[in-house]
Every structure is written in C-alpha cells, then in structure tokens.
C-alpha cells in the first residue's frame, strides 16, 4: 500500500511539474511578446521603468519555471532526493516572489488611473518632439490605437507649444486620422484636422481604447497567475511528501 501511495505521489508530482513547465513556457512567451511586440506596446514598456522591469521579471520567472518544471519532472521520475530538495527550495522562492509581486501590483494599482496619466501627459508631453522618449511614446500609442490624449483632444489645450513652432493648433499631428494606423500611414486630411475639423480627428481617449483592448488579456493574465500559484503550491506539497517517502 505504501509503495502504491509513493508511486501515485510520484506521478502526481510529475503531472503538476508538467503544468509548471507549461506555465513557465507561457510566461516566457508573454514576456518576449511584450518586449518585441511591433504594435507600439513595446514603446510604452520602454518608457515606463516599472513596466520595463516587470516585463523582464516576467521573462526571468518564465525561464525559471520552465527549468524547474523540467527538473521537477526528472526528480519525480528518477526519485532523486537531491533534485526534489533543490526543486522544493527554488519553487518556494519563486512562489514567494510571485506572491510579493501580486501584492505590490495591488497596492500600486492607483498609479494606473486616468487622472495619473492625464497629469503626466499635461506635464511632460512635448507634442511632435520625437527626440523626447515620453512624447515619442505617446505619439506612437495615439497613432497605433487611433486615439487622442488620455480623455480626448481637450487634454492638449493645457499643453504648451514648442518655442520654435509657428503652428498654433492645440491638436497634435498624432491625433489626426490616417488611412493606415502607423507612422508611415497617409493623413486623411492633416490641414483640416489641425484647424479643428473634428471628423478628421481621432476623438476617443486612449485610456478607454487601451483599457477595452487589453481588458480580456488582464483577466486572462490574472487567472493564469492564480492557476500558476495554485499549481506551485500543490507541487511543493507533493515534492516534500515524495522526498520523505523515498528511502
């Protein structure tokens, strides 16, 4: 009976580690996508130190889970106590790190409010100055998502003009409609847009557009994170039980 229980524990351990292996592969894939994504999200990440750090943490965590899932599977099949102990200690560290990251994300979630982005835009945006990382990033986001400002074009009424600019339009070029939503795309009617003709402007704010675009992925990422934490917890329990059961 004890041998059957140990065998059952071994295969359960293998199963959970296989899921950890897959979870690590998913995190690795998402991290790589965030960093190399060509649609403009990459520039948001690069301009925000918190998101930039988070993307690389996701990459590192994915790689570690990928490796540890593989080691856990080997330790379970071979019934190697050293591999099992190594696996348990490192999966515990990863579990605590992920839990801490989730708590910090919950605590600092107010930094991602509409008011925060509006304040930062009015304070740092330099219109068509593409040498400024903040402005260039916002221009890329507005072009990619066909949106304007955080709430709409009215956000730019308080943004000062560049000292060498002779154009007095409050609407930046990035808010003008294009035939193709990229920097290379032709304007539908640039002059009319800049003179205030609304039908040639993107009127919807970027906060709502981006929130709607990524809402599904946020819930998916949250569900995936909870699932990974639960799998890691069970894997640690099975690893310790298997470690104690091996003679």
Automatic annotation (TrEMBL):
Sorted alphabetically, the keyword list is: Glycoprotein, Membrane, Transmembrane, Transmembrane helix
Q: Which domain of life is it from?
A: Eukaryota
Compartmental location: Membrane
Keyword Membrane on this protein?
A: yes
Pfam families attached here? Tetraspanin
Q: Which InterPro entries match?
A: Tetraspanin/Peripherin, Tetraspanin_animals, Tetraspanin_CS, Tetraspanin_EC2_sf
Q: Would you tell me the Gene Ontology cellular component terms?
A: plasma membrane
Per the annotation, which location comes first and is thus the protein's main one?
membrane
Q: How does it sit in the membrane?
A: Multi-pass membrane protein
Keyword check for Membrane, yes or no. Answer: yes
Report TM segments: 12-36, 56-77, 84-108, 217-243
Family (UniProt): Belongs to the tetraspanin (TM4SF) family.
Designated name of the protein: Tetraspanin
């Amino acid at each position: 009976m004890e041998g059957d229980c140990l065998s059952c524990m071994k295969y359960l351990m293998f199963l959970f580690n296989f899921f950890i292996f897959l979870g690590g592969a998913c995190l690795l894939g998402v991290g790589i996508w965030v960093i190399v994504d060509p649609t403009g999200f990459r520039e948001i990440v690069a301009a925000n130190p918190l998101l930039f750090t988070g993307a690389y943490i996701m990459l590192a965590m994915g790689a570690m889970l990928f490796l540890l899932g593989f080691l856990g599977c080997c330790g379970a099949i071979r019934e190697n106590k050293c591999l099992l102990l190594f696996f348990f200690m490192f999966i515990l560290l990863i579990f605590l790190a992920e839990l801490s990251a989730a708590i910090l994300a919950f605590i600092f979630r107010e930094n991602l409010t509409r008011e925060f982005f509006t304040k930062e835009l009015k304070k740092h945006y330099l219109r068509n100055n593409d040498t400024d990382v903040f402005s260039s990033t916002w221009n890329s986001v507005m072009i990619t998502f066909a949106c304007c400002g955080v709430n709409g074009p009215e956000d730019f009424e308080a943004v000062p003009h560049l000292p060498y600019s002779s154009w007095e339009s409050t609407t930046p070029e990035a808010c003008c409609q294009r035939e193709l939503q990229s920097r290379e795309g032709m304007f539908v009617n640039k002059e009319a847009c800049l003179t205030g003709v609304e039908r040639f402007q993107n009127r919807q704010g970027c906060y709502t557009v981006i929130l709607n675009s990524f809402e599904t992925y946020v819930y998916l990422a949250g569900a995936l994170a909870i699932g990974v934490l639960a799998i890691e917890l069970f894997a640690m329990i099975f690893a310790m039980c298997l470690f104690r059961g091996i003679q």
